[in-house]
Amino acid sequence: MLGLTVRWSLGEAADGVDAELAAYVADTSYARFTGMTGLQFKTWRTAPGEWFEGSYVFASDEARAEFQATFTEGAADSPVSRIVGSAPVLVEPCDIVAIAEGWEGFTATPRA
C-alpha cells in the first residue's frame, strides 16, 4: 500500500491553533477527502503544540504521485499552512506494511 505523510510544525504557531485545525478538518477538509478518487483513506493526527499531520493511503503509484506533485506545488499556500503560519516541514512518501481493523471496528467521522 502506498502512503504519504505531510507534517507541519506547531512549535511557532499561535495559541488556539489546535482548535482551529480541528474545526478546519471537521468543517472543510473531511468532506474534500471523503470519496476522493485514488485515495483509500486519510487520517489527521496531531500532537497538540508540537505537530499536525495528514496521513494518506493511495490505491496506486499514479494517484499518490499526482496528489504529491499537486500538493507540493501549493503546499506553502495550503489551508493548513495558512492556519499554522508556515509550510509543511515534511512531505514523505512511504509504504504501508499492513492495516488491521480491531474488534471495535472503524468509524469514519470528521470529529474524534
Features:
112 residues, alpha+beta, four-stranded antiparallel beta sheet, Alpha-Beta Plaits
Helix content: 25-40%
What count of structural domains? 1
Order of helix and strand elements from N to C terminus: EHEEHHE
What CATH architecture label applies?
2-Layer Sandwich
Tally of alpha and pi helices: 3
* CATH topology assignment: Alpha-Beta Plaits
> What structural category characterises the helix and strand content?
alpha+beta
Sheet with the most strands, sense and barrel status: 4 strands, antiparallel
Distance between the termini: 25 Å
Radius of gyration: 14 Å
| Number of beta strands | 4
- Which residue ranges are poorly predicted, with pLDDT under 50 across at least 5 consecutive positions? none
Overall pLDDT level: 95
Q: Which of globular, elongated, flat, extended, rod-shaped describes the shape?
A: globular
Q: What strand line-up does the widest sheet have?
A: 2-3-1-4
Percent of residues in β-strands: 25-35%
**Name of the CATH class:** Alpha Beta
Can you characterise this structure?
There is one protein chain. By secondary structure, the chain is an alpha+beta fold. 33% of the residues lie in helices and 28% in strands. The chain has helices spanning 17-33, 61-74, 79-84; strands spanning 2-9, 39-47, 51-58, 90-95. A hairpin with a 3-residue loop joins strand 2 and strand 3 (51-58).
